[in-house]
Amino acid sequence: QKVYLNGEILNHEDAKISVFDRGFLFGDGVYEVMLQINGSFFYGDEHLARLSKSLLAIHLEFDLASLPDKIETLLKASDLHEKDSLVYIQITRGVAPRKHAFPEKAMPTLMMYAKPFEIPDINQKQASVRIMDDFRWHRCDIKSVSLLANVMANTEITKEGDYEVIFSREGAITEGSHSNIFFVKNNVVYTHPANEHILDGITRQIAIELCKDIGVEVREEAISKKEIANMDEAFLTGTTTQIASVKQIDDHLYYTNDDVGQITKRLQEALSQLK
Ligand code: PDD
């Protein structure tokens, strides 16, 4: 496994970061996960724009102009040029004596790796999902590497064999630990508004566009925990998840067999045609 670290391509065993890197000490950094599909980045500009937004939100200055070239170098070195792959990009504030406030001067650390990615079959196993209180912070719009709450929640539900946890903040369903959630009721699609309580997923944005393309109304309104049992369909979106049909949320079963809701299915098909 090759890694890009601050201008060098290294074997991952040889890629070393200081113990005083603020990414390690404080989780002081941001990241992106994006795909290369059929030789081009899937909504690459949107992923880079979001990275830029995350950097701005944490006041981390970093020139992204040469990032696409660096990613190309990484993909070539990883033997993934033109192959379907997942690219992980992480920028942390860099090395400085441990003090909470941002240091005046630090060189940001850029680390990236790429691995082969197989696009999930549209008929992927349907997701079963658990609800948990949203015990995360109030800046979920920043794609921060500080993912402890997401990691804790996801570990809890994975133990039970579920695919994803969805968070509930004051009774409103926000998003998953690594995906966004949508609901369908009477042919109207609902998803939490893109505010500080969710990450505005690129796949979420694509799904909203696809709804418009297929003539389905979308309302960016949160669904409450109580309404879940009254919904007709639910689905998750994310770079690694793509569009996954939700079979079950806690004890509420949407389908008893391998059915997939009409709108979920149309969106899955529309998404696969974009690639
Ligand atoms: N996660 N919400 C959260 C909390 C996420 O971490 C992600 C993505 C999403 C979906 O965003 P997008 O559609 O842009 O991938 C929503 C990535 C894939 C990860 O952490 O691995």
Short note summarizing the structure:
Belongs to the class-IV pyridoxal-phosphate-dependent aminotransferase family. With 275 residues, the chain is of the alpha+beta class.
Task: Write a concise keyword list for the protein shown above.
275 residues, alpha+beta, D-amino Acid Aminotransferase, Chain A, domain 1, D-amino Acid Aminotransferase, Chain A, domain 2, 6-stranded antiparallel sheet, binds N-(5'-phosphopyridoxyl)-D-alanine
Note the topology.
Elements: E1 2-5, E2 8-11, H1 22-26, E3 29-37, E4 40-41, H2 44-57, H3 67-77, E5 85-92, E6 109-116, E7 127-133, H4 148-158, E8 164-169, E9 172-176, E10 180-185, E11 188-191, H5 202-213, E12 217-219, E13 233-238, E14 242-249, E15 252-253, H6 262-273
Bound molecules: N-(5'-phosphopyridoxyl)-D-alanine (PDD).
N-(5'-phosphopyridoxyl)-D-alanine (PDD) is lined by residues 33, 150, 175, 178-180, 199, 201-204, 237-240.
Pfam families: Aminotran_4
GO molecular function, one term: transaminase activity
Protein name: Aminotransferase IV
Characterise the protein shown here:
This protein has 275 residues and is α+β, with helices and mostly antiparallel strands. The protein folds into 2 domains: 2-116, Aminotransferase class 4, branched-chain amino acid transferase, N-terminal domain (D-amino Acid Aminotransferase, Chain A, domain 1, 2-Layer Sandwich); 127-273, D-amino Acid Aminotransferase, Chain A, domain 2. The protein has helices spanning 22-26, 44-57, 67-77, 148-158, 202-213, 262-273, and strands at 2-5, 8-11, 29-37, 40-41, 85-92, 109-116, 127-133, 164-169, 172-176, 180-185, 188-191, 217-219, 233-238, 242-249, 252-253. The strands form 2 sheets. Strands 7, 8, 9, 10, 11, 12, 13, 14 and 15 form a 9-stranded mixed beta sheet that branches. Strands 2-1-6-5-3-4 form a 6-stranded antiparallel beta sheet. Strand 10 and strand 11 (188-191) form a beta hairpin. The longest helix is centred in the N-terminal third of the chain and has 14 residues, at 44-57. Keywords: Aminotransferase, Pyridoxal phosphate, Transferase. It holds the Pfam family Aminotran_4. One of its GO terms (molecular function) is transaminase activity.
